[in-house]
Amino acid sequence: MPAHDAPTALASRRTWLTAAFVGTAGAVGALGWRQWQALAPATSAAILPGDDVCLVAPATPYDVASGLPLAAARPVPASARCPVCGMFPGRALDWAAQLIFESGDAHFFDSPLSLFMYLQHPERYSPGRAPQAVAAQYVTDASAGPGAWLDARSAWYVHGSSARGPMRAGNLPALATRAAAQAFAQRRGGRVLAYGEVDRPVIASLAGSGGHGAH
């Protein structure tokens, strides 16, 4: 682009974004916040160009009224969205994972794979969040189902099994013990990995499938 055209293009883009913001604000006022929340995903995708804006799923604050310890695993809110893929983990509780910061804020994930992807590049998915601020990580026990939370760092994972995650692609089912993971692998195939063995090559081999490509 010629140098003299750059200010014009920038002004045009700013004008477009301003118009989009005004239109969005008007929509919120006309519809009311609850209706807007229902329409927001589709509307946001329509008015916010990917090369200008990165939409970040917000962390869920700690609820003092829950009575849970600050770093304890907690129920997945229906409104929570995975910061990696945008899915609602509450719709796939058999696979859900979560990460809790020292502040008590939490991110919920649609699967252990998304949790590992997040941990590779937390700054990509949560700008301003330091990896050192992570207080706890949890995954769902694949043999016990929803609400059976395991410490992600002591869990065992099966890579390459026939089990399909919420995106109908290969994933990393988590089990409480190595023996349980080996039994799972005997039934469904795959190899057993400890937390530290879920490395970049393993994540890369899975991340591109089923829409899990990095933003």
Please provide a brief summary of the model.
This protein is α+β, with helices and mostly antiparallel strands and 215 residues long. It has six helices and seven strands.
Description:
This protein is 34% helix and 13% strand. By secondary structure, the protein is α+β, with helices and mostly antiparallel strands. It folds into two domains: 3-47; 64-211, no CATH class. Helix 1 (6-31) packs antiparallel against helix 2 (33-47). The longest helix is centred in the first third of the chain and has 26 residues, at 6-31. This is Nitrous oxide reductase accessory protein NosL. InterPro entries: N2O_reductase_NosL, TAT_signal.
Tell me the Rg in angstroms: 20 Å
Provide the helix percentage: 25-40%
Strand order of the largest sheet: 2-1-3-4
User: Which band does the percent of strand residues land in?
Assistant: 5-15%
Total count of helical runs of at least 4 residues: 6
Present the secondary structure layout.
Elements: H1 6-31, H2 33-47, E1 97-101, E2 106-109, H3 112-120, H4 122-125, E3 134-140, E4 149-151, E5 156-159, E6 174-175, H5 178-188, E7 191-194, H6 200-207
Antiparallel strand pairs: 1-2, 1-3, 3-4, 5-6, 5-7
Helix pairs in contact: 1-2, 3-6
InterPro entries: N2O_reductase_NosL, TAT_signal
Protein name: Nitrous oxide reductase accessory protein NosL
Pfam families: NosL
